[in-house]
TrEMBL record:
Reactions catalysed: shikimate + NADP(+) = 3-dehydroshikimate + NADPH + H(+)
Active-site feature positions: 63 (proton acceptor)
Keyword Amino-acid biosynthesis: yes
Classification lineage: Bacteria, Pseudomonadati, Campylobacterota, Epsilonproteobacteria, Campylobacterales
Residues involved in NADP(+) binding: 205, 227
Entry similarity comment: Belongs to the shikimate dehydrogenase family.
Domain (Quinate/shikimate 5-dehydrogenase/glutamyl-tRNA reductase): residue spans on this chain: 114-157
Top EC class for this record: oxidoreductase
Pfam name, any one: Shikimate_DH
EC code: 1.1.1.25
Organism of origin: Campylobacter californiensis
Name of the featured protein: Shikimate dehydrogenase (NADP(+))
SUBUNIT field: Homodimer.
Length: 262
């Protein structure tokens, strides 16, 4: 039997064990997926090995440790600056970033995107900005504080709220946690409104509720999507990586999608 786990702090709320265990069962795989509360990210690899895991997912706040402590990092994870998937192969731990792959798969129905504004400058924003740029999209970043955009400003046009001159984009992404547990917009309405009015598609990484950002975008007739498909597809791609890409992703997707309908 193979064993997989999710590491994070907190982990109790995560839907990942349900997604993975459902697909493992439906695909007839002899494996289980559990969760591990990990306080100290520097212990990630020693825990992975002591639990004799075959693979793992990593969530907040340990995704950077996952990249930095792995034996081998995939180019996508290196570029994103974080990893959410670990796989044991020939006694080496490989790190991947399937959040970015899940995001690209989730926005695929929007069609050709040439310009994007990422709102936020945390770990998720950074990963999405790099994957979009690697796919030929011209990316700008807008963030509340100046501190977090400093590291990104070498590679992107970055603005804090007071420096930003609103304009339109093909795609606007909320990658902040504003709206996750409150009714706060991810930027002041006088900034957001002209951006939304001049843009075509809106995506919110938050998946479990209608955020003020998506509500505003919907009111102005943008094509909108929340983060549910991103979450779904990062899990689909992670499970396939656990099995050396030998599984049928359409079957995994079908099985995991049913969890969202429960
Ligand atoms: P971080 O803590 O790394 O970054 C948070 C960002 O949000 C910062 O840029 C911060 O700005 C900004 N922010 C927080 N509160 C506000 C606010 N009230 N107004 C404006 N900006 C705010 O978080 P992560 O990047 O790890 O996660 C961000 C979101 O992405 C979370 O909601 C998480 O659940 C979601 N997520 C979804 C996934 C999916 O599969 N759908 C996968 C991964 C994450 P500042 O610098 O000013 O503090």
């Amino acid at each position: 039997m193979q064993t997989f786990a999710l590491f994070g702090d907190p982990v109790a709320h995560s839907i990942s064990p349900r997604l993975h265990n459902k697909a493992l069962r439906d695909l007839g795989l002899d494996a289980l997926y559990t969760r591990v509360l990990l306080k100290d990210g520097s212990e990630l690899m020693s825990k992975f090995r002591s639990l004799k895991l075959d693979g793992a997912n990593v969530t907040v706040p340990h995704k950077e440790h996952a990249l930095n402590l792995a034996d081998v990092a995939s180019p996508t994870a290196t570029c994103a600056g974080s990893a959410n998937t670990l796989v044991l192969k020939n006694d080496k731990i490989y790190a991947y970033n399937t959040d970015t792959l899940g995001f690209m798969r989730a926005i695929a129905p929007f069609g050709d995107i040439k310009t994007a504004l990422i709102i936020g400058a945390g770990g998720t924003a950074k990963a999405l900005a790099y994957v979009l740029q690697n796919n030929g999209v011209e990316v700008e970043i807008l963030n509340r504080s100046k501190e977090r955009i400093q590291n990104l400003s070498q590679n992107f046009n970055c603005f804090s709220w007071d420096e930003f001159r609103p304009k339109g984009y093909d795609l606007v992404v909320n990658s902040t946690s504003a709206g996750l547990k409150d009714d706060i917009l991810c930027a002041p309405v006088e900034i957001l409104l002209p951006v939304i009015k001049g843009s075509n598609f809106a995506f919110d990484v938050i998946y479990n509720r209608a955020t003020p950002f998506l509500n505003l975008a919907q009111q102005h007739n943008l094509t909108c999507k929340n983060g549910a498909d991103m979450l779904l597809f990062q899990a689909v791609f992670a499970l396939n990586l656990f099995y050396d890409s030998s599984l049928d992703e359409t079957k995994i997707e079908k099985s995991m999608r049913e969890v969202f309908r429960l």
